[in-house]
Amino acid sequence: MIGFGAVTGLVSSALSSMFAAKEGKSDVASNNSDFLKTFEQQTQQKTSDLIKTLDKNGDSVLSADEIGLSQKEFASIDTNADSKLDANELNAAYIKKEITTATQDLIKTYDINGDGKLTETEMNISPEAFSAIDTAAKGAVGIQELMAAHPMNSLMAKFSSTANSLTSAANNVQSLDLTA
């Protein structure tokens, strides 16, 4: 039986190869780590630039008014529900958007029968990698399963967990009685 780490590597490599082939790049799968580092740096720079541009009151976070989103859009990004978007929340939202767009494009490119799902044959990946993605074991994977297996999810999780950890730490500090 193949180990979880090996399957994760197979899935990441297979999907990276598919995304790279769609973009006309052949070296992304072999340089996946470098690609993720570069993407992370670019995302952080875009987020920093966005905050600098839109942050009217200089608090290094964005309110709904500052960013100009609907309440529903704002709430979907404000994962800690503090009515402010920090860099980590914005980074995670940007990465999620990129994952969604790339996955939709992948399906459009490789979905031969037009059913909105990809089979092992359409994906042209190993049975082990396909089985790891096909969590419902239906022989075809839809957008949710593909998004869940996307190699950039590790970055999104990194930013999401950092935002949640910072909120938890802030809440713990606020609850301390510092008057004693």
TrEMBL record:
Protein name according to UniProt: EF-hand domain-containing protein
A Pfam family annotated for this UniProt entry: EF-hand_5
Source lineage: Bacteria, Pseudomonadati, Nitrospirota, Nitrospiria, Nitrospirales
Regions that span the bilayer: none
Annotated EF-hand domain residues: 104-123
Gene3D superfamilies associated with the record: EF-hand
